[in-house]
Design brief:
Elements (H helix, E strand, L loop, with lengths): L2 E15 L2 H6 L4 E15 L3 E5 L6 H9 L5 E7 L5 E3 L3 H4 L6 H10 L9 H14 L16 H13 L5 E5 L7 H18 L2 E6 L2 H7 L2 E6 L2 E7 H6 L4 H9 L3
Parallel strand pairs: 3-7, 3-8, 5-6, 6-7
Antiparallel strand pairs: 1-2, 1-4, 8-9
Helix pairs in contact: 4-5, 5-6, 6-7
Length: about 250
């Protein structure tokens, strides 16, 4: 199976502006924080790949670099998808609170140009079909994001991403803000969509149990370094990194 994503020797640095006192002591007023360090991996088309690590280890920075939101890096990123999409941890923050759900979901369809341009009726039909696909009632089109539950909002965020006709999705901690019951529902939804649409999913999480349910392969990251990667079963049963062993012990796996 062909690769949809290849990352080779990726390094990302953040520049920190220092205060006046430190500037007087240094010739340069800037320092650099090395966030991602020689990160290399590939991802097969149609695969669900997990990325696990504690908060601040560089997971979201990697996602932003892949999506082109972080342009200052060394190394190579090759992605065979013209319109990659991201589902964020907090769907409420990513949905326009002043617009109704119908308007929000039609927005990516309104941006289509030329021969791909859709009529209002066609946009409404696509939105209705997508709401059914993600398990929501079409009546929610007349509601605002604040009127929906957390699980409903996350389903809307997933629907909005898929309406962009993408085949590559980054899910950045998409269930961590939800209670356990709703987490399970969203995981089942993502797996269903993966099976039906054949989309590739980079699933970012700190929860090893969720990754075990979701993913074909897993990468373990600490302090911007991928410590190990491989088939989920192999990594979970025979980890060689002490950090991975610590994470598995903490999760009682």
């Amino acid at each position: 199976m062909k690769n949809i994503l290849e990352v080779n020797k990726l390094n990302v640095y953040y520049t920190n502006n220092e205060g006046l006192a430190k500037k007087l002591k240094r010739k340069s007023g800037e320092s650099r924080q090395h966030v991602l360090k020689d990160v290399s991996f590939d991802m097969k088309r149609g695969e669900v790949l997990g990325l696990v690590g504690e908060s601040g280890c560089g997971k979201t920075t990697l996602a932003k670099a892949i999506l082109g939101m972080q342009k200052q890096y060394d190394g190579e990123i090759w992605l065979d998808c013209p319109n990659p999409q991201m589902v964020f941890q907090d769907p409420y923050a990513s949905l326009n609170p002043s617009k109704k759900i119908g308007w929000i979901l039609e927005e990516p369809l309104r941006m289509k140009k030329g021969s791909d341009r859709l009529t209002k009726a066609e946009r409404a039909k696509r939105v209705d079909e997508m709401l059914v696909r993600v398990g929501l009632d079409g009546k929610l089109k007349e509601h605002y994001p604040a009127e929906l539950s957390g699980g409903q909002r996350q389903r809307i965020a997933i629907a909005e991403a898929l309406l962009c006709d993408t085949d590559f999705l980054i899910a950045d901690e998409p269930v961590s803000a939800l209670d356990v019951t709703i987490q399970a529902q969203i995981i089942r939804l993502l797996l269903k969509l993966h099976k039906e649409l054949g989309i590739s999913i980079l699933f970012i999480s700190h929860d090893l149990r969720v990754v075990y349910q979701m993913c074909d392969r897993v990468m373990i990251m600490k302090n911007g370094v991928i410590l190990e990667q491989g088939n989920v079963e192999e990594v979970y049963r025979n980890p060689f990194s002490d950090y991975t062993k610590l994470l598995l012990d903490a999760a009682n796996l």
